[in-house]
Amino acid sequence: MIFNRSKSMPDDVPATLDLDRIPKHVAMIMDGNGRWAKKRGMPRIAGHQRGMEVVKTVAKAAAEVGVEVLTLYAFSTENWKRPEDEVGFLMKLPGRFFDTFIPELKANNIRVEIIGDITGVPTDTQRVVLDAVAQTADNTGMVLNFALNYGSRAEIVTGVQEIATAVAQGELAVDDITENTVSQHLMTRQLGALADPDLLIRTGGEERLSNFLLWQSAYAEFVFTDVLWPDLTADIFFDNLITYQNRDRRFGGLVENKSNQK
Ligand code: IPE
Ligand code: IPE
Ligand code: MG
Prior knowledge:
magnesium ion binding; binds 3-methylbut-3-enyl trihydrogen diphosphate; magnesium; 6-stranded parallel sheet; binds magnesium ion; globular; ditrans,polycis-undecaprenyl-diphosphate synthase [(2E,6E)-farnesyl-diphosphate specific] activity; 13% strand; alpha/beta; 39% helix; UPP_synth-like_CS; 7 helices
């Protein structure tokens, strides 16, 4: 089906993408940087560098079509297992990224948010990241939410500890613990009603979550693509959104509950 376009919409957006049914929250596992570099006989960090440029492309494409939250998995709690020089490079990437991209974030009204244990990253990385959050805090458009030193199991453990403490201190009754209580004690609580992704995309060919948004993805639609993250383009991203729009989201009910349908 071909959908109408307003005059302001650039013609790089495919006419088969329905702008009235864009997923509100898109989460992406940016995988395949190392293999992209290896294929070219380059060091793995060259893949991460190229991947950083793709983050800019995808962030602008997502904002352009009206995605409200774009969560990007940048560094997992398990990625510390990698060689020291690779980890060191990954920790410097936020600095390089925001150095060159803050003006465009501002121009596109994009607000930066972070999930993950930011206290566990080097202090200069912390500083640039918190500075980017502060500098874009007044922006009212898309939230660009980076998962940095993020692990969903650690997130859930912290949440359970907070809830248990509230119970032990007599502030919360066990019977009053609901799904909403748990959601409110996860790092995504700052996203409010948009905490749960509608669509989760993983590039790089692996079909697993690797400890990403375990609770929040309960009813997400999954798209796995063999495209390596550094090869991702706005066109491929829009194709993934079209794939989402062709899914039936039933949430355990019947077809008429499809929230990605009109
Ligand atoms: C994803 O690419 C980036 C991070 C995990 C930081 P990889 O570095 O995992 O690339 P592959 O999977 O080895 O190709
Ligand atoms: C997942 O990719 C983490 C990020 C993209 C930041 P990995 O490459 O670390 O995942 P595994 O090791 O293949 O599961
Ligand atoms: Mg990988």
